Amino acid sequence: MRGQLEGYNLERKRVLVIGGGTAGMASALDLVERGVEVFLIEKEKEIGGRAADYCCKATEKCNRCTACLVLQQKDKVMQEPLIHVLTSANVKDVTKNGRGFKATVARGEDDIALEVQAVIVATGFDPYDLKRRSEFAYGLEENVISGLELEKALKEKGSLTAAFGSGIKKIGFIQCVGSRDLSIGNGYCSRVCCMYAAKLAKIIRSELPDVEIDIFYMDFQSFGKGFSAFNQELRESDKIKFIRAIPSKIYGFPYDRLTVRYTDSLVGKPCEDKYDLIVLSLAITPSEGTQEIAQQLGIALDDYGFMAGRSAQETVATNQAGVFLAGVCQGPKDIPQTIGHAKAAAGQAYLYLNS
Ligand SMILES: Cc1cc2nc3c(=O)[nH]c(=O)nc-3n(C[C@H](O)[C@H](O)[C@H](O)COP(=O)(O)OP(=O)(O)OC[C@H]3O[C@@H](n4cnc5c(N)ncnc54)[C@H](O)[C@@H]3O)c2cc1C
Ligand code: SF4
Ligand code: SF4
Asked: Which residues contact 101 (CB under 8 A, 6 or more apart)?
């Protein structure tokens, strides 16, 4: 069935936002404050994006992971009459219509026709596909998990013990899996995984003071404000061990713990250690469908397949008038940076509507 979406006001300016994660929600909320009507298209059953699954990383104090901001945004979006949220929906096609755009959105059996004056792309990221790295035994060993899976398990179950049982005595975090690796074409830093691994280690230490935690890293990135001090506290007070090495192999035998083989770059010799849980900090990679959306809208991709801004400095505007980028679809960012970028996208879209 093909039809117009009912209940929207043709007198108002309208923007199509593709992707209902942190970025899409932040752009939508900024636009409605300026009196613009928004169609927020989300392919999943619910809006919120990846960060809606993250756990709170407070210990005796808030550790400023900002995951709760995303849930607040979600509530606001759902209550906002000027934001039309279309979930389980996909943009089937978009074509230029004068200075604006005509779009067809597919939802179930229905095709919905929309006319908008600008488009914001906020399609986020996918985690690096671990099928490309069989040496880490992901999918083969139950207790080799990704950072995303640890976030979700802690959020759903409330504690490490509730999620993984009481047998966890030693945990290894492995950084930069799929990032900063020119051999697989991902030469960039994913920017958020040092920070989230450190904060996850901190909450596990606070729940289980006797569990040993090792972090395997090559170069620890501390992008956020106050992160260096946080890191120092992890090493000195929390006794979390930092091992400068990227493991070459993880393997398990029935009824045994997981073995991690690595060469410690400071000591310079091969080592093996046993763990009960391994957490892989996977690279942030362009989300599935990025290429298709870029083609539909006539925008370019960068060398790593993220949506490309007009230049290295102009990361919000694209080479297509009226199409703007918000959040991690343009490259790795944490939640506060994503929100800042998405608000800038809303601001530039608003200027375009009124130019
Ligand atoms: C393991 C992990 C832990 C993290 N922890 C933290 C943390 O504690 N604090 C922090 O600040 N940052 C954290 N981050 C970073 C955080 O996840 C990102 O900053 C944030 O999710 C970016 O939001 P986004 O909207 O750009 O992307 P996403 O969250 O990926 O949202 C994109 C949305 O678009 C939808 N979508 C995709 N394609 C389409 C399409 N074609 N049509 C319609 N909808 C589509 C997706 O379903 C999704 O809902 C973490 C990242 C990882 C990987
Ligand atoms: S979710 Fe993060 S920012 Fe919010 S209270 Fe918990 S630790 Fe603090
Ligand atoms: S943020 Fe840390 S773990 Fe992630 S790619 Fe950069 S250096 Fe590696």
From this structure: 16, 94, 95, 115, 116, 117, 118, 119, 322
